[in-house]
């Protein structure tokens, strides 16, 4: 048994250019190039004309003279990346970021609560589109390498599952350029030897591949061509924040509805802090308005905490302060993140009696949620209310 196809590779499509098209509706459907002297990114409309990343600006103009060239806005790309990664981490705690616009996610073991890996990927793509406004392609496979190849093959804005029994049929006919680590120089060397597909490379013995390409490169590529990639999703990099957000649609929301949604988000994030034995120092509120503008508010608490009541009080105060903007512009998305995380045992509580009472309540609720599910206990304010779109509740673990 080869195991389940449970590794997701999620990759935002033409990331910088897609952010520009999202924020400027008049650019949608048109060829867009980010960067002047050198192409930093190109929309799929520009790619169809031959424009590629790292190409010189003059060559790009010759290929696509009607392209709209825009300067890069790194702050906008960084903010979009944070929002997407918040969705990744709301999907599963096992996330390995590769770059600003792509990550691996391990979703094995979530079938009972969240469905199959494909169902999880479908929801993830829907959330990224609804909450961040960007297209994302996802590949699903047993290994990281195959998942990455699958996402590349599925582009643009696609989803592709490679089940274990179809791995060879999927990979071997592909060009060698699809192998992770084959650049232009290596590809040219292989082509000169008549090796153009992954299957042709896989037919060689490992010693022959190492003689042709060098020991390290040859061994690496030969292993991939023969479907060997033992690397797990690596989550050892410690995160400095956790967060979650909800898309609200375009209809007006009352303060009471917003409070219910805010409470749900804070409840879940606080539980994630406690599950990981973490405390946080800063609460950040992120809002997106009906006119596509955004706002961020934050507050740093005195002693770092993981107590739901304390964090909810701070989040409510931030939301109350933003009510004038919400009333004026409408609201389409609300997000909360906890940042400046530290270990739970690194902070000595200042008020042990009060904190013990809060800790006792939180511990009881966490135990009920663990045994009977996240929906088993709700706050009285949530009864009879439909707060809108919410993400599935998934198990959290380090």
UniProtKB/TrEMBL annotation:
InterPro entries: DNA/RNA_pol_sf, DNA_pol_Y-fam_lit_finger_sf, DNA_pol_Y-fam_little_finger, DNA_polymerase-Y, DNApol_IV, PolY_HhH_motif, Rev_trsase/Diguanyl_cyclase, UmuC. It is an enzyme of class 2 (transferase). Mg(2+) binds at residues 11, 101. Keywords: Cytoplasm, DNA damage, DNA repair, DNA replication, DNA-binding, DNA-directed DNA polymerase, Magnesium, Metal-binding, Mutator protein, Nucleotidyltransferase, Transferase. The record marks 16 as: Substrate discrimination. It comes from the Bacteria. GO terms for cellular component: cytosol. GO terms for biological process: DNA repair; DNA-templated DNA replication; error-prone translesion synthesis; SOS response. This is DNA polymerase IV. The gene is dinB.
